[in-house]
Amino acid sequence: MNTFTPADFDFTLLDDGFCIDDIVEQKINELSESAEVGYNMTLLDIGGGFPGSDDSELKFEEFTAVINPALDKYFPADSGVRVIAEPGRYYPTSAYTLAVNIISKKVVLEPVKKLPLGMEHVAFDDITNKRSGSLMYYVNDGIHGSFNQVHFDPHHAMHTLHKKHQQDMLKYPCSIWGPTCDKDDCIAKECIMPDLPTGEWLVFNNMGAYTISMYSNFNGFEDPIIHSVMSRTVWERIQQISAEGLPATVE
User: Fold this and answer.
1) Which of 143, 177, 224, 233 has its CA 20 to 30 A from that of 204?
2) Taking residues 15-19, what's their average pLDDT?
3) pLDDT tens for each residue of 85-118
4) Which residue range or ranges hold the Orn/DAP/Arg decarboxylase 2 C-terminal domain (predicted)?
5) Beta bridge partners of 106
6) Catalytic residue among 19, 174, 181, 186
7) What class has domain 2-91?
8) What tens digit of pLDDT does each residue of 184-203 get?
9) Beta carbons of 132 and 124 less than 8 angstroms apart
């Protein structure tokens, strides 16, 4: 069995004039040539890692638009090779949204310095000895729980505020930390948020893949509680099916 995953799509090559089409076709072509050296391949596993959310840098449709033509070219239906994939990330990613609670926070005072690009609008205290403030938020989940992939995939920690705040509300450089005593339990090192009170909620979308399935109870913290939520339209449809049964199949 041969396999390749999106990790094989070395995006550094894109700067050298290569495109994803070139890389995928090269990989699949290499596999198809295995028969020429006496290897009778019957199963091709193209791996996984396919994005399952609309905010990913590369969309699922962009992968399939490249992979499918290459498979048709080098492994047509009559080739005798069974092609499978591992869409373990694709299916559950958008099915779960994680809400974490701010259990503590810390104000860190630092000498005023030039802020990174995009952070120029944040507030700082120009009165107290020319020192600027940043906030450290501690929440009730971390890298030993639902954020175990954050060091490998920083996009995992893209949060939104539970409540809408006024546009002119002052915002500060912040970092978000998990609840354990581990110095590496950092969910987000740099972000911009208002001064939020303890007890406020942060929401992380697209948290279905490699989160609760890899959760640990490190330092005695319990698994997050899962609540099932659906739209009113879906709920009414389920009630209708429960009462009337599934609609007849149209041939």
Assistant:
1) 233
2) 43
3) 898 889 999 899 999 999 999 988 765 455 555 5
4) 94-208
5) 136
6) 181
7) alpha beta
8) 999 998 888 888 999 999 99
9) yes
Residues 98, 146 contacting (CB under 8 angstroms): yes
The 10s digit of each residue's pLDDT in 112-156 is 455 555 554 455 444 344 456 789 999 999 999 999 888 776 556
Instruction: Extract the tokens encoding 72.
Output: 């048709």
Report which residue type is found at 157.
A
Please report, as a single letter, which amino acid is at residue 190: E
Task: Give the CA dihedral 109, 112, 114, 116, nearest 10 degrees.
Answer: 10
| Domains of the chain by residue range | 2-91, 95-220
Q: Which CATH topology does 95-220 take?
A: Lyase, Ornithine Decarboxylase; Chain A, domain 1 (2.40.37)
Reply yes or no on whether the pLDDT at 219 is more than 50. Answer: yes
Relative to beta strand 201-204, strand 131-139 is unpaired
Distance of alpha carbon 211 from alpha carbon 147, whole angstroms: 6
Q: The whole model's pTM is what?
A: 0.70
Dmax of the chain from CA atoms?
Answer: 78
Three-state SS for 189? strand
19 is catalytic: no
Alpha helices in 75-119 (DSSP H): none
210-225: average pLDDT: 86
